[in-house]
Amino acid sequence: MASGLLAVRLALKKAGLAQIDAHEWRQSVVLTGKAGTWAQYITAGYAAANRGYKGVANNIEADGIEPEESFLPPNRDTDLEGQSFDVAIIGGGVTGAAVARELARWDIKIALFEKEEDLAKQASGRNNGMIHCGLATRAGTKKSLYNLRGNKLYSSAAGELGFKLAWPGQLVLLPSDWQRILYPVAVLEAARKGVEGIRLLSRRQVFKLEPNATGSQHGAIMMPATGIVAPYQVTVAYAENAVQNGASVFLNTAALGFVMDRAKITGIITNRGTVRARLVINAAGVWADKVAGYAGDRFFTIHPRKGVMAILDKRTGAHQKSILSMSRLGIRSHSKGGSLTPTVDGNILMGPNALEVPCREDFATSPDDIDFLLQRHLPLNNTLRSSHIITYYAGVRPCTFEEDFIIEPSQYVTNLIHAAGIQSPGLSAAPAIAVDVAEMAVATLKREKEVRPNPNFDPIRRSQPLLSELSLEERAKAIAANPSYGRIVCRCEAISEGEIVDALRSPLPVDTLDAVKRRTRAGMGRCQGSFCTPAVLAIVAGETGQDITAVCKKEAGSQMLLSPTKGPLPEWRKNSES
Ligand SMILES: Cc1cc2nc3c(=O)[nH]c(=O)nc-3n(C[C@H](O)[C@H](O)[C@H](O)COP(=O)(O)OP(=O)(O)OC[C@H]3O[C@@H](n4cnc5c(N)ncnc54)[C@H](O)[C@@H]3O)c2cc1C
Measured from the CB, is residue 128 less than 6 Å from ligand 1? Predict the structure, then answer.
């Protein structure tokens, strides 16, 4: 691809965007001007990408699209004012949480700031939980490198941190016989990347493995090194182990800006006061370019790519063992195309799709999205029906125009490391990204102070086992020791009061319904909380000391109950109405 400013300008002109100006800034290219549509904004970004620059800072204004502000916690206090840390991590997705845990191996003071009221509320809790084997990522990219390494680290991470992990493998179904020519190419690619076990299956072998697979398949490429996890559980597990080893996690805490002394961050301005940190790690997902901008280092742009997924009833889990997708040879796309993915909890996930959207926190779903998923994915398994859908959700991928991760110390700010642009397969890559970012962080800290291993580091997360994972004898024992394990609150998922209490008393205390759901699955079943919500509300209120009417579903302001049907208004309601 031709490189340099002239090449960028020519590419913009070719795309019908001659009005867009391009200029160099440090080692990146900056785009300015006006575009008629969001699609043009995106086209311009890609036209300028990978033309010899480190990144594209796309500052184009698109008609009718207002610059977007992120959701910020409403709380304002000074509780953190003046506090000092060795490392401050901005962002409590899987990247930030895994980095915190890797850093906890060292005897240093670590803070993780997350603007939402819980971890994994953005991409890390809104994906389809696949641990990709790494065959699909372009060799030579950071995506590929970290995907391959991350995949191989997952088994030990799951063992130490106690999250569920399974390796069902992925079947890429072939829609025609001639697509078998893909196989030798895949074998070469797998050998180059060290992906083990791929094999070609005939139509009959596919049916033997997956009797319900579509009749329109002509065999498949099997990739057994593809796994599944519940991504929010992975994130919480990493963060809890970090906390058990001395790290601090601050929820409802947003980084709003930096205090700079030339090329050094000397303060992090938050909604809870200004804190100091020797080193800052930018793991802010879709907002990572804004956070880089706080330090005057916005050499890249995050453009949001939304994906919608549907969750199918647990009954469907028995009808499919492997991940099923259809080969899309010849279709140019930045996304892998989605699949029917079994979950570690027995459901099937359908999707995602991929849509360029202007809003970074656009988690809306539409009938069109669902129609698309039904058409593309449902036919892959003959037993599935649209009535199996129990709910849907959307996540937003934090993509750069270079379509690669940015994992490196800032070249201009002496105490900033970027872990940005972590789109798919960022979940798969997280364990490996964390190892490298922690190494970079320790190397940077060592320039200022001695850094010793944490003598008390314990890689094993101490957590209560889920009852559903225990044998009947083990359950009986647990109930005899603590009768609240015998009181089932969520009937769909068979979650007991004791497990909900355990989640609320975990090393990372939470106080909302959704946070309980992420940790225990209470409310994740077929009825989606219709039956258990009142009971869970009462348990959360009892454990956290909140009035039951004040307990929120998610962020502040999402109370489930308005007021008692009889009696005076609760205090929070009076205040909110005054
Ligand atoms: C639809 C979809 C499907 C996907 N499927 C897969 C898959 O199957 N396998 C896979 O490997 N990957 C998948 N991915 C990609 C994966 O989800 C992401 O790569 C990964 O979750 C990124 O994690 P992160 O921690 O970098 O970002 P995030 O999870 O987005 O976390 C960033 C965090 O930073 C916080 N934050 C932002 N700004 C601030 C601030 N100023 N102050 C404090 N906090 C801040 C945010 O609230 C957020 O919690 C998928 C993604 C999507 C959207």
Answer: yes
Q: Does domain 82-167+225-303+399-463 fall into CATH 3.50.50.60? A: yes
Which atom in ligand 1 lies closest to the alpha carbon of residue 254? Answer: 42
Going from the Cα of 123 to the center of ligand 1, the distance in angstroms, rounded, reads 3
The finding on whether 424 has its CB within 6 A of some atom of ligand 1 is: yes
Please name the residue whose Cα sits nearest to atom 3 of ligand 1. Answer: 127
Mutate which of 70, 80, 99, 115 for ligand 1 pocket (most atoms within 8 A of beta carbon) = 115
Give the tens place of pLDDT for each residue, 257-316.
999 999 999 999 999 999 999 999 999 999 999 999 999 999 999 999 999 999 999 999
| Of 422, 440, 408, 415, residue with least CA distance to 103 | 440
Q: What is the crossing angle of helices 513-520 and 533-544, to 10°?
A: 100
Is ligand 1 within 6 A of the CB of residue 570?
Answer: no
CA of 120 to the centre of ligand 1 (A): 7
Q: Which of 122, 126, 393, 518 to mutate to test the pocket of ligand 1 (most atoms within 8 A of CB)?
A: 122
- Say what the pTM is: 0.96
Is the CB of 126 within 6 Å of ligand 1? yes
Find out whether the beta carbon of 150 lies less than 6 Å from any atom of ligand 1: no
Question: What number of other Cβ atoms are within 10 A of residue 415's Cβ?
Answer: 23
Is-catalytic flag, 132? yes
Of the listed ranges 163-177, 276-290, 444-458, 564-578, the one predicted with least confidence: 564-578
**What is residue 58's predicted lDDT score, i.e. its pLDDT?**
97
Q: How far is CA 458 from the centre of its chain?
A: 25
Q: Whose CA is nearest to atom 38 of ligand 1?
A: 284
CATH architecture assigned to 467-577: Orthogonal Bundle (1.10)
For the domain made up of 5-62, give the CATH fold.
Histidine-containing Protein; Chain: A; (3.30.1340)
Q: Are strands 248-250 and 84-90 parallel, antiparallel or unpaired?
A: unpaired
Q: 144 φ, ψ to 5°? A: -65, -50
Give the contacts of 362 (CB within 8 A, at least 6 positions apart): 304, 306, 394, 396
Burial 173-191 (b: 16+ CB within 10 A, else e): bbeeeebeebbeebeebbe
Structure tokens at 200: 């070609």
Is CATH 3.40.50.2300 the classification given to domain 170-219+304-385?
no
Structural domain boundaries in the chain: 5-62, 82-167+225-303+399-463, 170-219+304-385, 467-577
> How many residues does the structure list for the chain?
578
